[in-house]
Amino acid sequence: MPSIHVEPDGDVAVLRMEHGRVNALDTGLCRDLAARLEEVENSGYRAVVLTGSGGAFSAGVDLVRVRDGGEPYVREFLPALSDAFLALFDFPRPVVAAVNGHAIAGGAVLAAACDHRVLGVGGGRFGWTELAVGVPFPLTALEILRSAYGSRILPELTYDARTYDPAETLERGLADEPAEPEAVLPLALAHARRLAEVPAATFAHTKRQLHRPATERIGEQRAADDARVEEIWTAPETLAAISDYVRSVLRRG
User: Fold this and answer.
1) Which helix (H) or strand (E) holds 5?
2) How many domains are contained in the chain?
3) Is 22 in contact with 102 (CB distance < 8 Å)?
4) In a domain, 232, yes or no
5) Range of the domain at 79
6) pLDDT tens column, 17-53
7) Residue 52 has what pLDDT?
8) Which residues does the chain have with pLDDT short of 50?
9) In a designed cystine with 53, which of 18, 33, 147, 237 is the match (CB 3.0 to 4.6 A)?
């Protein structure tokens, strides 16, 4: 069963994540996102809106799958995660995030990979909590954050490992436009159509120019950095820390 549904809205493709309770990122969802983006690119849509379902945009990596799958699963999952981030970041047409609820860790990286972010003000949290779990970011994720928000704020976003309420998210410039819950998708569609008024070749080239510093660093450094990230993620002490983190979250929930 697909975890990403394509919902046509005229010349805009709405990609809706519908995967479990909080659209947690696992290998299947990551591969499905990359595949749906490729299909949309080849289908003539002028723009994309990425959104979630229920009360979550995406709550980040499915740590239960990581805990249960251990090292073999991590080695399969991490490349799929980075590939999904890149498929979104490199998509040549306008992509707008309709952030309908919680966007945490990898979920917030997906939002950062989009060209514009419409944020629902209904109470969802937004932020990057990887270091609280004890795992490093893949290089692709960090470069997407750097491209979206600049280097100056990056230490706060990563080292602090905290999440922000909607007011703080907007105050720090992590999202571009507030919306009441029922208006998130309509406003995202409207902005996607505004961006799509730019001739497609012009938009694609400008987007490549804006992203070039990040994509060059990823191209030059990803292989070596991914190997080190994988080494840390699969270390016994890291997997034990993930298991402890999952246990504490389940106790609170």
Assistant:
1) strand 4-9
2) 1
3) yes
4) no
5) 4-183+191-196
6) 999 999 999 999 999 999 999 999 999 899 999 999 9
7) 97
8) none
9) 18
| Encoded tokens for 154 | 């990056």
| 178 is a domain residue | yes
Residue found by looking up tokens 């799929």 in the block: 80
Would you say residue 96 lies in a domain? yes
Distance (Å, whole) CA 84 – CA 11: 23
SS3 58: strand
* DSSP bridge pairs for 81: none
CATH number assigned to the domain comprising residue 138: 3.90.226.10
103: amino acid identity, one letter: A
158 in a structural domain: yes
Question: Can you give the pLDDT at residue 182?
Answer: 96
Is the Cβ–Cβ distance between 16 and 49 less than 8 Å? no
Q: Which entry of 39, 71, 130, 197 is annotated as an active-site residue? A: 130
User: Pick from 107, 148, 105: which is nearest to 130 by CA?
Assistant: 105
Confidence (pLDDT) at 122: 85
Residue 171 designated active-site: no
Alpha-carbon distance values, 66 to 26, 36, 50, 55, 85 (Å): 9, 24, 25, 23, 18
